Amino acid sequence: MSKLLHLSASPRDEASESLRIARVFTEAYQDSHPGDEVEHWDLWDGSLPDFAVGAKAKMTVFGGNEPRGAEADAWAKARRTFERFDSADRLLFSVPMWNASVPYVLKQFVDVVSQPGWIFTVDPVTGYGPRLAGRGKRVAVIYTSAVWGPRLGPEFGTDHQSTFFGDWLRWTGLTDIQEVRFHPTLTGDWDDARCAADARARDIAKVF
């Protein structure tokens, strides 16, 4: 039995297109994988720890030492966050575009879980080593935007959304990635775009 973990980076509830598409995806997944577990993680729910002290702990670990006191507490909270993320072998991210990139809560998630020995190793000669590679994990990402679109010029923005997040996924070793995109733009046909995104979400979910 597999576990699908949906991580949501949108705080807009019923008004969110990324969450709407995620519901289409998870419903199709449950229909096709009735024995699997599905968990939803709203990254805005306050469960992500602050990482100011954790950043100090990270450098303590990099130096080959053990975090203590407040650093140890921060490191333990970060570890629990990573373990929740790592508990699933199927990952679904709903990612709206904010100011050409991702919502800051998703960057917070990335910064909390991206730790030495958990997500990566580093060697002075060979560089980074991805710790999540070769473990059979699969990823689907829903990218949405309202203004930017792939066929528009730079006056409508730039895609630092999927370039940043896709690069992070591959850096961790997660390379089995499927994308669902919803970019209707200000003058596009939103109904057609919704139908196309929903159809792709269902197709991926059925065999995910």
Automatic annotation (TrEMBL):
EC annotation from Swiss-Prot or TrEMBL: 1.6.5.-, 1.7.1.17
Taxonomic path: Bacteria, Bacillati, Actinomycetota, Actinomycetes, Streptosporangiales
Domain Flavodoxin-like fold: 2-197
Cofactor dependency: FMN
Family according to the record: Belongs to the azoreductase type 1 family.
Protein name: FMN dependent NADH:quinone oxidoreductase
Keywords per UniProt: Flavoprotein, FMN, NAD, Oxidoreductase
One Pfam match: Flavodoxin_2
Keyword Flavoprotein: yes
Cofactor stoichiometry and binding remark: Binds 1 FMN per subunit.
Cited function: Also exhibits azoreductase activity. Catalyzes the reductive cleavage of the azo bond in aromatic azo compounds to the corresponding amines.
Residues reported in the UniProt entry to bind FMN: S10, S16, E17, S18
Keyword NAD assigned: yes
Catalysis performed (reactions): N,N-dimethyl-1,4-phenylenediamine + anthranilate + 2 NAD(+) = 2-(4-dimethylaminophenyl)diazenylbenzoate + 2 NADH + 2 H(+); 2 a quinone + NADH + H(+) = 2 a 1,4-benzosemiquinone + NAD(+)
SUPFAM superfamilies cross-referenced by the UniProt entry: Flavoproteins
The organism of origin for this protein: Nonomuraea salmonea
InterPro entries: Flavodoxin_fold (IPR003680), Flavoprotein-like_sf (IPR029039), FMN-dep_NADH:Q_OxRdtase_AzoR1 (IPR050104), NADH:quinone_OxRdtase_FMN_depd (IPR023048)
Subunit-structure text: Homodimer.
